[in-house]
Amino acid sequence: MRVIVVGAGLSGLMAARQLVASGHQVTVFDKGRGVGGRLATRRIDAATLDHGAQFFTVRTNEFAAHVDRWVAAGVAHEWCKGFANEDGHPRYVGSRGMSGIAKHLAEGLDVRLEKLVFSLECSDYDVTVVTDDGIKHTCDAVLLTAPLPQSFSLLFGAGIEMPAELRTIDYDRTLGLLAVLDSPHHNVPSPGGLQFPDDVFSFIGDNSAKGISQAPALTFHANPEWSLQHFEDDIETIHSLLLDAARTWFGQAKVVESQPKKWRFATPQKSWPHPYWAAPGGLVVLAGDVFAGPKMEGAALSGLSAATYLVTAFS
Ligand SMILES: Cc1cc2nc3c(=O)[nH]c(=O)nc-3n(C[C@H](O)[C@H](O)[C@H](O)COP(=O)(O)OP(=O)(O)OC[C@H]3O[C@@H](n4cnc5c(N)ncnc54)[C@H](O)[C@@H]3O)c2cc1C
Predict the structure, then answer these.
(1) CATH code for 40-94+170-269?
(2) Helix (H) or strand (E) holding 5
(3) How far apart are CA 92 and CA 76, in angstroms?
(4) Atom of ligand 1 nearest to the CA of 174
(5) Does the CB atom of residue 48 touch ligand 1 within 6 A?
(6) Residue 183 has what DSSP assignment?
(7) Looking at residue 315, what is its pLDDT?
(8) Ligand 1 pocket check for 172: Cβ under 6 Å
C-alpha cells in the first residue's frame, strides 16, 4: 500500500515508522523546514532552547516501550520526577532538544520538507495529494496529522465532512519567550521547571537544567488566557510584554538575547474519544494529539493507532 502522511510531527512520524515496518511504502510531507512540528528546538549561539513541548510523561506500557528505546538510543533522558514537589513520575526530555526525538524517528523515512499539502482529490479507490509546487502524488490512503483546523480545510476541499463535534474543537494559543542569559544566577530553582508560577506563565523551563543547553537559557510559556488576550498584538509589543513579565525570574542574570514565539494551535481544548478518525470510505484518516490526549504521549499513540487501522484495513 502507498500511504502519504501529512505532517512530520510526532504522530505522523510514529505512524510512518509503523507503516514502513509493516511493509508499506510511505512518503511524509511537511510544510516546515525541519521535522518535529510542536517538538521544536531553537539554537541561539551556545544556547539550545525547546520552544514547543517542554517535557513528557509516560502513562501507558505502549508508549513506555518506545520511550525506553529513545533513552537507549541516547535521544531522550529523564529530567526529574516533578517540579515543586516530586511525585515519583519521571519527566523526560529530548537529549538534543525535543526536535532531536523527531529527527531520530525520521531517520530512514522518505520525509519531504517545505512541501505544503495544498489539496486532496479523492476517488473510490485512491487519493491524490497536491503539494504547493503543483505536483500530484497518488496513493492508496492518506493520513492527516496537522492540527484539526488545518486538516479541515483539506477535507473541505475534497468534499469530506468531519463530525461537527470534531470540527469545532478549538486549540489554545501559546505565546512564548526564549531568553539567553549571561549567567545561571536566575530565579528558577532546581530542578529547573515551574508550572503556573504566576498569573502570566504556565511554564518556565531552564534548558541548562534539562541538560540540553551549554549556555544559560530559559523558555517561558504564557498561559492560555494571557496568550489569547495578547495574540493579535504586534510582535514587538508581545516581545516587550513577555520580557517585562519574565523580569522577576531573571534574578541577577542579564538577558543576552531574546526572541518571542507564537503558537496558534498549541493545545487542543478537548479530546476526541477515539484515537483516530477515518473518513467514510476509509482512505483518508486523521490522527494527532486531539485524538488520544493533548500531549506527546497522545500524539504518539494516535499515530500508532491510525497506522494499525490502515494496516488492518488494507490487509
Ligand atoms: C507551546 C507548547 C508547549 C507544549 N508543552 C508540552 C509538554 O510540556 N508536554 C507534552 O507532552 N506536550 C506538550 N505540548 C503538546 C505537544 O507538543 C503536542 O501534543 C505534540 O507535539 C503534537 O504532535 P502532532 O504530531 O499531533 O502535531 P504537530 O506537532 O503539530 O505536527 C503536525 C505537523 O503537520 C504539519 N502540517 C500542517 N499542515 C500541513 C500541510 N498542509 N502540509 C504539510 N504539512 C503540514 C506541521 O508543519 C507539523 O509539523 C506542547 C505544545 C506546545 C505548542
Answers:
(1) 3.90.660.10
(2) strand 2-6
(3) 7
(4) 1
(5) no
(6) S
(7) 83
(8) no
